[in-house]
Amino acid sequence: MKNVLIIDYGTGNLKSVHNAVKKISDKQYCKISVSSSIEDLKKSTHIILPGVGAFESCLNGLIKTKVRSYLEEMVLEKKKPFLGICVGMQMLATKGFENGEFSGLDWISGEVKKINNQNNNIKIPHMGWNTLNFLKETAFTKRLLEKMKVTNLNDISAYFVHSYNFKNKNANEKVITTCYGEEITAMISKENIIGTQFHPEKSHYFGLAFLKTFLEQG
Amino acid sequence: MLKIRIIPCLDVDAGRVVKGINFLSLRDAGDPVEQAKAYSDEGADEITFLDITATHQQRRPMIDVISKTAEKCFVPLTVGGGVKSIMDIKEFLLAGADKVSINSAAIKNPSLINESSKKFGNQCIVVAIDAKKKSKNWNVFINGGRVDTGIDAISWAKNIEKRGAGEILLTSMDRDGTKNGFDLELTSKISSAVNIPVIASGGVGCLKDFFDGIKLAGASAVLAASVFHFKELTIKQVKKYLKSKNINVRIDNLDK
Predict the structure, then answer these.
(1) Does B19 score more than 70 pLDDT?
(2) 3-state secondary structure B94-156
(3) ipTM for the complex?
(4) A57, A67, B24, B104: which one has the fewest Cβ atoms less than 10 Å from its Cβ?
(5) Residues from chain B contacting residue A52 (CB–CB below 8 Å)
(6) What is the reported pTM?
């Protein structure tokens, strides 16, 4: 029995994530909760941290729920499969620089900085479908591609909407990138932790396959 | 590379899709949830719903439409029409919208743009501009095209960008429903005046119109209603055509 927890911390479009997980999971074997209760966190087998909005307000929202220490216990010690989406991934960084300088959860070393638009030749936010570059094959991406029944990785795209980029420190934790004015971190992975800048819940067939692969983790 | 978005738009009136010409003479065009699902399966990059005769009594059918659509479509969903307050925006987002489009209320109370983009993130605040040519310039119209505000569309576009809007949905009232193509001059002027994405809307009649809106006017996305509703063109057809013209579109799931 799977028990997916979508963390509700008063921000983000939780409904989309919920709808997508519901679509790809088997009702009989999968319970989905949207909450920030410590009980649900303890019972969960898979944790999703969505995020829409600004770095600081998301982080403050999460801190207000008082689940941070339990969340860290479940993810960092108990190693439950974890997926952070968009700002839910950015919050894992050491620091964020949106409207000031703020400390993140620091689960994955790196900094979240505004997409470089010095030449004023790109539109911000980076909004829409962009091509993914798979930097390497991991167990996760291998299963994902099997699920999608594709062999050609050249033209898979996902839906992005953001103005800040997670510049993570360790190159080996970066799995997928995309290009928009600069190299954008699209997926990071470290042990049981996965983060995506794109929105799998809005990336149609690819996104649904991605979420399905995540649910099969652990 | 970032792809140009093709966005089918569903004008909804009391829970049904309708389509008018120059904002008037509405015709029934079907069930919004089924149409949105069909568009999404066919490769639509986003779906837009506009509640064109929104009043509070009609809010309920719209909420139902959004929530049923959000359960079936796994591409971004933008909803607009009758949005007046932070509460309205929240209600649409909770029902499953990813972005909310504000039109008249943004003119009447511009600080709503600042407040909502701060609260929900600028990525989810779209400001719609309905513009109509007046001698050399374009004026912004509100209340579903009924009221001329006298405000210049280009300076308004710059203003809403400054206030934190994430995107502009630009509709040419002169072209809406006419199938004479986008107002390229208007679209190009607005698109180069701001640094946020501009969605061109109003007037698509044939494949070349999509190409012109992107290539000649610099739109980040193109929105169309009637050509898709009445099956004169399919999304697949449009994307194949644009690809053959070297426009970068998402085509990866089209053959499934």
Answers:
(1) no
(2) HHCCCEEEECHHHHHCCHHHHHHHHHHCHHHEEEEEEEEEECCEEEEEECCCCEEEEEEHHHH
(3) 0.90
(4) B24
(5) 120-121, 123-124
(6) 0.93
